[in-house]
Specification:
The protein has 254 residues and is an alpha/beta fold. The chain has one domain (5-252): Ribonuclease Z/Hydroxyacylglutathione hydrolase-like (Metallo-beta-lactamase, Chain A), CATH 3.60.15.10. It is 34% helix and 24% strand. The strands form three sheets. A six-stranded mixed beta sheet has the order 1-2-3-4-5-6, with helices on one face. α1 (36-45) runs parallel beside α2. The mean pLDDT is 96. Bound molecules: fe (ii) ion. The site of fe (ii) ion (FE2) has 4 residues, from loops.
């Protein structure tokens, strides 16, 4: 569906929630709502009815808006990978397809940050919602799962089409950029990415969304074989998993 739109709604201090809609009907989908009032304002402004609430993982900064939204839109269908405030939900897991009146999402299990974490992929419209698994130039912290699980989850995302437009859960890009500048020698890819990020931040006050193909070239957490990291990895004789473990530990203490 060509006219599908994604409106980015700032939430809390650095979270993003995503409202998906189109011009031909009044249906809409929200991903990871944290603050219901802000979202309801945008829905009303655009004369939309909230029909679907999609959750990537159980953390409160991705779910705390659900109850408030249900008060205003009690018929909304909830899709979540784990139980939510004792509500009736459609429990989603790897391979599940969410069919909405606007589009269809393929669900990928992406554990590591949390055990229940999923990514949501609309392959027809090239939209990918990654919650806290992947960030621009970084990835989520490993809270509940293992480094191996997180590495495998990022590999699943690495294997998706370059054309995907990626929407992640937080605006952490500048800090992630500083970390990469600290760790790797200056290189053209990082310098060009920095220019693009600073331009995005100046124009839109956000660095989201980004294109998966670009990220595969500039994010060593996502792609340990990217050019920026190859020399470092070779000189330390790291496997991809060892390199990911090294990066994640360094970033946790940065
Ligand atoms: Fe999270």
């Amino acid at each position: 569906m060509k006219d599908i739109k994604v409106e980015i709604i700032n939430q809390l201090s650095d979270n993003y929630s995503y409202l998906i809609f189109n011009n031909s009907n009044s249906s809409s989908i929200i991903v990871d709502p944290a603050e219901d009032k802000k979202i309801i304002q945008v829905l009303k402004k655009n004369k939309l009815k909230l029909e679907y609430i999609l959750i990537t993982h159980h953390h409160h900064d991705h779910t705390s808006g659900v109850l408030g939204l249900l008060k205003e839109y009690p018929d909304a269908n909830i899709y979540s990978p784990s139980e939510l405030f004792s509500l009736t939900i459609n429990k989603i897991a790897d391979g599940y397809k969410i069919k909405t009146s606007l589009n269809e999402f393929q669900v990928f299990s992406t554990p590591g940050h949390t055990l229940d974490h999923v990514a949501l992929c609309d392959t027809k419209n090239n939209l990918l919602f990654v919650g806290d698994v992947l960030f621009r130039l970084g990835c989520g912290r490993v809270f509940e799962g293992t480094i191996e699980q997180m590495h495998n989850s990022l590999n699943k995302i690495l294997n998706l089409s370059d054309d995907m437009t990626v929407y992640c859960g937080h605006e952490y890009t500048l800090n992630n950029l500083k970390f990469l500048e600290h760790l790797f020698v200056q290189n053209d890819i990082l310098a060009n990415t920095k220019k693009q990020i600073l331009r995005d931040l100046k124009l839109k006050n956000k660095s989201i969304p980004f294109i998966l193909g670009d990220e595969k070239k500039s994010n060593p957490f996502l792609n340990p074989e990217c050019e920026m990291a190859s020399e470092f990895k070779k000189s330390n004789n790291y496997s991809n998993l060892e390199f990911f473990r090294y990066l994640r530990e360094k970033k946790d203490n940065f």
